UniProtKB/TrEMBL annotation:
Isomerase that catalyzes the interconversion of fructose-6-P and mannose-6-P and has a critical role in the supply of D-mannose derivatives required for many eukaryotic glycosylation reactions. GO terms for molecular function: mannose-6-phosphate isomerase activity; zinc ion binding. The gene is MPI. It catalyses: D-mannose 6-phosphate = D-fructose 6-phosphate. InterPro entries: Man6P_Isoase-1, Mannose-6-P_Isomerase, Pmannose_isomerase-type1_CS, PMI_typeI_C, PMI_typeI_cat, PMI_typeI_hel, RmlC-like_jellyroll, RmlC_Cupin_sf. It comes from Anser brachyrhynchus. Gene3D superfamilies: Jelly Rolls, Phosphomannose Isomerase, domain 2. Residues 170-257 form the Phosphomannose isomerase type I helical insertion domain. This is Mannose-6-phosphate isomerase. Binds 1 zinc ion per subunit. It is an enzyme of class 5 (isomerase). Pfam families: PMI_typeI_C (PF01238), PMI_typeI_cat (PF20511), PMI_typeI_hel (PF20512).
Length: 423
């Protein structure tokens, strides 16, 4: 029998508390559709679907003719499946982790270290930083999606410092004035002033910030009840985060970080040291294969304010600059490429219109993982043992330089996402 190099995966779910519950979650819907025997608990959060070979969530191989039970084990025994360039560049490992996220309440204010800092943190605190790799990541919205990402333009932060006395009290008059003055000066001065302001806020004594936060929440609640416009204090978002994380310093981050809204198909790329927090919605996400996160608020987990404030990229930019453009492939109008400025991964959105009944998922010189979000088809490949029934929630591992022919059976076409590494 020919070697099987294309096969279906059963992917683990992470039930983090911030996930959407039961079948409200895109993750749960994909799992239930992909495996009709799966039981979905309506009270349980279904936060993340992990599609890859990370040790904390190695996908199971759904083909009993393959002796290895997990993708990680199979890749270790068949490293040529990665493609020659990828195998050499990433020491025989799959360089990316592909996910679906369903976000009900905010994730922590966080950033991911670059390679140098990741190695240092892992050596010093392995219990908090489990590996030595960097973790750039990209999110593509499946439903309307919201997140905080990167520092706002200085004029916006200065306007909040004037409109929100409770914020100004925590930052301090000297630091606030320095930021206001720096707005018209050189970029390095702006970054330095921003670093001082944000660090002073995040290092506030607990009693101080809890008192100021309570005062702020009471004031905004009163103004909202009287029908006043609270947008100058970012009132709606502040109250929403405070209801999820009462008394948490992270609530004040809404005055420093951009609110980014993505429509389905829009993306944001999070480079190393970029502060961010996902707020709500469903997305596919791809990242370098790592689980390193430095957190500083909106979380019950370990927080490391000093490291976060030291490492951040303090370059202000408007929220519109955070939306990462997709490029339609010149070779195939159904393919939209999201190619970030890191070597570890590239994402493709494949939208097959209903008019097309036969479609070729083309070969690339990299292992890839294919997720079906909408539609049904029968897939065939010279590297698969038999025909594969594909439907919403199906996940396939595709070895380098292998293609798949799809015979579509859904009236509305198909939507697929593919993660790979295009060196």
């Amino acid at each position: 029998m020919a070697e099987i190099r294309v096969f279906p995966l059963a992917c683990p779910v992470q039930n983090y508390s911030w996930g959407k519950l039961g079948l409200q979650s895109e993750v749960a819907q994909l799992v239930a559709s992909g495996d009709p025997t799966a039981h979905i608990d309506p009270e349980q959060p279904y936060a993340e679907l992990w599609m890859g070979a990370h040790p904390k969530g190695d996908a199971a191989i759904r083909d009993n003719r393959i002796p290895q039970k997990t993708l990680g084990r199979w890749i270790a025994d068949n490293p040529a499946c990665l493609g020659a360039k990828v195998k050499d560049a990433f020491q025989g490992r799959l360089p990316f982790l592909f996910k679906v996220l369903s976000v009900r309440s905010a994730l922590s204010i966080q950033a991911h270290p670059n390679k140098e800092l990741a190695a240092k943190l892992h050596a010093q605190f392995p219990q908090h930083y489990p590996d030595a790799n960097h973790k750039p990541e990209m999110a593509i919205a499946l439903t309307p999606f919201e997140g905080l990402c990167g520092f706002r333009p200085v004029e916006e932060i200065a306007s909040f410092l004037r409109a929100v006395p409770e914020l100004r009290a925590l930052v301090g008059e000297v630091a606030a004035e320095q930021l206001e003055r720096s707005a018209s000066h050189d970029p390095r001065g702006v970054s330095a002033a921003l670093r001082v302001c944000f660090t002073r806020l995040m290092k506030s004594e607990k009693k101080c910030f809890v008192d100021q936060l309570n005062t702020l929440v009471q004031r905004i609640s009163r103004e909202a009840a009287e029908g006043q416009d609270t947008s100058g204090s970012n009132g709606d978002l502040l109250l929403r985060l405070h209801s999820q994380f009462p008394g948490d310093i992270g609530c004040f981050a809404v005055y420093f970080l951009n609110l980014v809204r993505l429509e389905p198909g829009e993306a944001m790329f999070l480079a190393a040291n970029e502060p961010h927090a996902y707020l709500q919605g469903d997305c596919v996400e791809c990242m370098a294969c790592s689980d390193n996160t430095v957190r500083a608020g909106l979380t019950p987990k370990f927080i490391d304010v000093l490291t976060l404030c030291e490492m951040l990229n303090y370059t202000p930019a408007p929220s519109s600059s955070k939306i990462f453009p997709a490029v339609q492939s010149p070779l195939d109008p159904s393919v939209f490429l999201y190619d970030p400025p890191v070597p570890d991964f590239t994402l493709m959105r494949i939208e097959i219109p209903s008019s097309i009944k036969l479609y070729l998922v083309s070969a690339v010189d990299s292992a890839s993982i294919l997720l079906v979000v909408q539609g049904t088809a029968v897939g065939t490949s010279t590297a698969a043992a038999s025909e594969m029934a594909l439907r919403r929630g199906s996940v396939l591992f595709v070895s380098a330089n292998e293609s798949i022919s799809l015979r579509l059976s859904s009236p509305d076409g198909m939507l697929l996402f593919r993660a790979c590494c295009l060196l």
